[in-house]
Design brief:
By secondary structure, this protein is mainly α. Helix content is about 75%, strand content about 0%.
């Protein structure tokens, strides 16, 4: 496999994982207890959607068109890291108590 093929494969896999995780977060937040009924738990989707629009979507479009792969791969990787860091913080916020 060439370097271009490896970058494209990584970028597509990272984008697939990122988009799948983003969709999963909607399901997870919908399963949370109502709490005070304000619906503020849905505010967690704002930064998650921002990561999707700023990192994952451009990386996906660049990898599909096979352009700027040296930019797309780190962008997708950075998106996954940002998802992980943000989700770790959100899980502590979602704990009862």
């Amino acid at each position: 496999m060439t370097m271009t093929g490896a970058l494209r494969t990584f970028t597509l896999a990272a984008c697939a994982a990122g988009f799948s995780f983003w969709v999963y977060t909607f399901w997870y937040i919908a399963q949370l207890p109502v709490g005070d009924g304000s619906g503020f738990q849905w505010m967690a989707e704002v930064p998650l959607t921002g990561i999707t629009l700023i990192c994952m979507l451009p990386a996906l479009l660049m990898s599909i068109s096979n352009r700027a792969l040296p930019v797309a791969a780190p962008l997708a990787g950075a998106g996954l890291v940002m998802y992980a860091l943000l989700w770790m913080q959100l899980l502590t916020e979602f704990q009862p108590g």
